[in-house]
């Protein structure tokens, strides 16, 4: 009985350590990203070459489609994508891009966004 309690305590301590160091969050993000990749790969396999013309993702929803359907909403989403690219938040982007139904092949360039916002290039 003492051995079982010791193992339970050890598991709890290991999980606590992994959570405190952020490793559990990283693993969860990687798992979510792999699930998205698998869903997108299945869609590509099902629709073949035509899948690249389908902006709707398996995980997109009516609200996100409404957001990117509006010019300002699309610009905000593209700014968020640029932020994630700049800070190399690749796992977050693998979820964000399909969820927002953003085009992976034709993201807005920084120059394009600066022009639309009325900012001067830095």
Q: What would you note in describing this structure?
A:
With 122 residues, this protein is an all-alpha fold. It has one domain. 70% of the residues lie in helices and 0% in strands. It has six helices and no strands. It has helices at 2-20, 23-47, 62-69, 71-86, 90-99, 110-117. The radius of gyration is 20 Å and the shape is elongated. The model has no long low-confidence stretch (mean pLDDT 81).
Low-confidence runs:
none
Question: What is the number of independent domains?
Answer: 1
Total count of helical runs of at least 4 residues: 6
| N-to-C SSE string, H for helix and E for strand | HHHHHH
Derived from helix and strand composition plus strand pairing, the structural class reads: mainly alpha
Strand content: under 5%
Can you count the beta strands? 0
Largest sheet, in brief, is: none
Shape: elongated
Helical percentage: over 70%
Q: Mean pLDDT, as a whole number?
A: 81
Which descriptors would you attach to this protein?
6 helices, single chain, 70% helix, mainly alpha, 122 residues
Short note summarizing the structure:
It contains 6 helices and no strands. The chain has 122 residues and is mainly alpha-helical.
Topology (SSEs and partners):
Blueprint: H1 2-20, H2 23-47, H3 62-69, H4 71-86, H5 90-99, H6 110-117
Helix pairs in contact: 2-5, 3-4
